């Protein structure tokens, strides 16, 4: 059993070991974060935001961070196989929480653009990092964000100076290779997209076989005026992995931000995505697709803060659950009194392939302005047996018919993904997943 | 081609078909008429293999062999086609993808090579022209947002592509305007031939002006109570089902 105290005492040990490596302000951030963590402790289901997700299983393990990068001869091809075929992307790879230069390939970057490890950025661009790091993700509101911030060692820094554009997708690949040790990593990503910039960024998380480990990432993204960022979080951890992640987004005037949250792996997964629409004319899309079988538990929490008028937000989440899988979708939309003419939409649809699968959907609309359009919808259903019969009556086999309908269900999210290598691989992943789920559950 | 013997079928314990006998030979067109709820669609669905209905006794022979144990997809691959009274909407599946998958499933079953996208386009082009269907139609999701008439046309398009040996059309004429009715009838007539049989379920003798049947049956309360030639359809249109009902009650 590793409780709050265990994490706090391990932090003290780690902090002394790390005292040489980072500037003092980083230590201050870490120390204040561990205090925030100590105040909150691990959440229980009494906490409104954690009502349907128990973190107790996570506390049964004694997870340990890995202090240094160990090269262990992972071939890039194997990573492609597990994650996405990312030829043509700019790739930054982290293994067990450490930057792996040998597995990264950035190519030649446009002038002024930085894509580098956070540790390096602390040397090359410390002032900018200091100006933004831990300025968006709130350590007082989520103990896992506090824990990540307290253990801040490394991660990725992306800086797009005004008017720049990176055409190729930027792939931030996080690999955990635990070799049966319960490894813990706290990847930290900081993305600063200045005015009128453009980029697509994929953060992916993969693991091996049935390794048990814990990934606790935090991503902070600031998208300034008129910038356009297309983001995707692809979670394909091992089947026994724990993943608790937050993506915190701050949006400026007339900016465009889109993200797709894809969850396939993990035993206990919690994704938080919080977007603050902090000026006028913003368009923000937050979509998701989650597939779960066995005893997987996947919780997606979204928070859209409409702080200013004339902004649009769109959320579309779709889930497919089989066996005894459980999922949670909590979509909070907060329209501040100032935010007139807000247009906010939210949908969560879920297909249950077995009687024992379960979904909790909870829309939370808090609207304090009067001239707004806010809609939300949720639907839970099975595969449409009328449609299955229709397809079969045309000669298509039962299993193929069901697969076709599952693909069709996911298509709405998939077709919205503009980052090609992600969309292409996902199409196959869904088929793979479904073929396995069919064997495992009473789905057929 | 099709022989139905004393077929009883029920749903959730409620008997709907109460002893249907029907024999359709190759080259023939049969029409089945009958009041709402008499069991016409049930019969059509049972022929296609819908498993929500339980066949409690009797048999369905197709080309001399019982098909009761065959899965719906197997029946389809053997050449049975049902045009649904209520075609199902399938958002997210493109009509062309659906049609190509269906055609290739059938070809694979029959030991033929699957056709590629180019061949498929060439094949479908003729059918689309015959049925006066808009090209955009085949790139839309199956029946999704289609008007009632468009859905029926789509059924006939599928039939034209799959070229069944036994086609059962369940009220394919309902909801069609006069022009569409003629076009659909053309599609059906194009399929007519010595090796094929067609069963049309309809409420309107009007359709039978365009698809002239060899035999007309009246299905009433789960039984075929009267069989005649195409004049029977005219008679029904004139007098309604009351007369047949009375005779059936007596007999
Ligand atoms: N799924 C079902 N559950 C319960 N009853 C059903 C079901 N499907 C059909 N029935 C019943 O079976 C009977 C026959 O229905 P069927 O659809 O075969 O009639 P029909 O002759 O095709 O009628 P229509 O002319 O209106 O199309 C009706 O009483 C109907 O209510
Ligand atoms: Mg009917």
Structural commentary:
- The complex is a heterodimer of chains A (444) and B (251).
- Chain A is of the alpha/beta class and 444 residues long.
- In chain A, 25% of the residues lie in helices and 36% in strands.
- Chain A contains ten helices and 22 strands.
- In chain A, strands 1, 4, 5, 7, 8, 10, 11, 13, 15, 17, 19 and 21 form a twelve-stranded mixed β-sheet that branches. Chain A has a ten-stranded mixed β-sheet with strand order 3-2-6-9-12-14-16-18-20-22, with helices on one face.
- In chain A, a hairpin with a 2-residue loop joins strand 2 and strand 3.
- In chain A, helix 5 crosses helix 6.
- The two termini of chain A are 39 Å apart.
- The C terminus of chain A is likely disordered.
- Chain B is of the alpha/beta class.
- In chain B, a hairpin with a 2-residue loop joins strand 4 and strand 5.
- The longest helix of chain B is centred in the middle third of the chain and has 15 residues.
- The structure holds adenosine-5'-triphosphate and magnesium ion.
- Adenosine-5'-triphosphate (ATP) binds next to helix 1 of chain B.
């Amino acid at each position: 059993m590793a409780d709050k105290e265990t994490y706090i005492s391990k932090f003290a040990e780690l902090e002394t070991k790390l005292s040489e490596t980072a500037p003092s302000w980083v230590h201050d951030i870490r120390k204040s974060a561990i205090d925030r963590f100590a105040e909150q402790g691990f959440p229980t289901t009494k906490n409104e935001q954690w009502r349907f997700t128990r973190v107790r299983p996570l506390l049964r393990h004694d997870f340990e961070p890995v202090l240094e990068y160990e090269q262990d001869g992972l071939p890039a091809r194997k990573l492609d196989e597990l994650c996405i075929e990312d030829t043509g992307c700019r790739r930054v790879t982290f293994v067990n929480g450490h930057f792996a230069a040998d597995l990264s390939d950035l190519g030649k970057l446009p002038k002024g653009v930085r894509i580098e490890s956070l540790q390096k950025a602390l040397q090359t661009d410390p002032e900018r990092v200091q100006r933004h790091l831990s300025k968006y993700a709130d350590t007082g509101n989520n103990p896992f964000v506090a824990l990540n911030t307290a253990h801040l060692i490394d991660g990725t820094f992306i800086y797009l100076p005004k008017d720049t554009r990176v055409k190729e997708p930027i792939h931030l690949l996080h690999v955990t290779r635990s070799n049966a040790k319960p490894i813990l990593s706290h990847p930290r990503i900081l993305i600063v997209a200045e005015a009128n910039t453009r980029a697509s960024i994929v953060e992916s998380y993969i693991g091996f076989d049935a390794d048990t480990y814990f990934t606790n990432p935090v991503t902070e993204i600031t998208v300034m005026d008129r910038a356009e960022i297309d983001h995707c979080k692809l979670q394909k951890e091992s089947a026994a992995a724990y993943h608790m992640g937050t993506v915190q987004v701050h949006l400026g005037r007339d900016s465009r931000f889109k993200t797709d949250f894809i969850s396939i792996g993990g035993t206990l997964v919690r994704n938080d995505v919080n977007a603050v629409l902090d000026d006028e004319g913003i368009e923000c899309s937050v979509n998701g697709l989650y597939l779960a079988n066995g005893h997987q538990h996947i919780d997606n929490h979204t928070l859209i803060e409409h702080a200013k008028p004339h902004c649009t937000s769109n959320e579309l989440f779709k889930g497919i659950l089989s066996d005894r899988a459980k999922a949670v979708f909590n979509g909070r939309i907060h329209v501040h009194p100032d935010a007139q003419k807000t247009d906010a939409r939210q949908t969560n649809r879920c297909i249950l392939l077995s009687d024992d699968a379960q979904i909790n959907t909870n829309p939370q609309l808090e609207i304090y302005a009067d001239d707004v359009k806010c809609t939300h919808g949720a639907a839970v259903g099975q595969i449409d047996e009328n449609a299955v019969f229709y397809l079969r009556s045309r000669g298509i086999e039962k299993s193929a018919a069901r697969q076709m309908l599952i693909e069709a269900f996911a298509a709405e999210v998939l077709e919205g993904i503009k980052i090609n290598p992600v969309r292409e691989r996902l199409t196959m992943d869904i088929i793979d997943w479904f073929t396995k789920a069919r064997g495992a559950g009473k789905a057929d | 081609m099709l022989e139905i013997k004393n077929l009883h079928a029920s749903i959730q314990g409620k008997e709907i078909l109460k002893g249907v006998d029907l024999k359709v030979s190759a080259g023939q067109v049969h029409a089945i008429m009958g009041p709402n709820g008499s069991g016409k669609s049930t019969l059509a669905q049972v022929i296609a293999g819908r498993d929500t209905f339980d066949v409690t006794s009797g048999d369905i022979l197709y080309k001399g062999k019982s098909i009761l144990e065959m899965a719906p997809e197997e029946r389809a691959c053997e050449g049975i086609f049902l045009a649904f009274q209520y075609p199902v909407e399938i958002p997210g599946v493109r009509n062309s993808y659906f049609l190509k998958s269906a055609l290739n499933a059938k070809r694979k079953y029959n030991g033929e090579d699957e056709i590629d996208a180019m061949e498929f386009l060439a094949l479908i082009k003729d059918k689309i022209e015959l049925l006066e269907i808009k090209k955009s139609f085949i790139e839309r999701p199956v029946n999704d947002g289609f008007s009632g008439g468009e859905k029926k046309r789509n059924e006939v398009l599928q039939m034209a592509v799959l070229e069944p040996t036994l086609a059962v059309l369940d009220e394919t004429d309902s909801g069609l305007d006069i022009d569409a009715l003629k076009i659909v009838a053309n599609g059906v007539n194009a399929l007519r031939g010595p090796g094929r049989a067609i069963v049309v379920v309809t409420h309107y003798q009007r359709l039978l002006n365009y698809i002239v049947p060899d035999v007309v049956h009246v299905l009433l309360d789960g039984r075929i109570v009267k069989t005649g030639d195409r004049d029977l359809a005219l008679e029904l249109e004139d007098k309604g089902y009351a007369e047949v009902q009375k005779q059936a009650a007596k007999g």
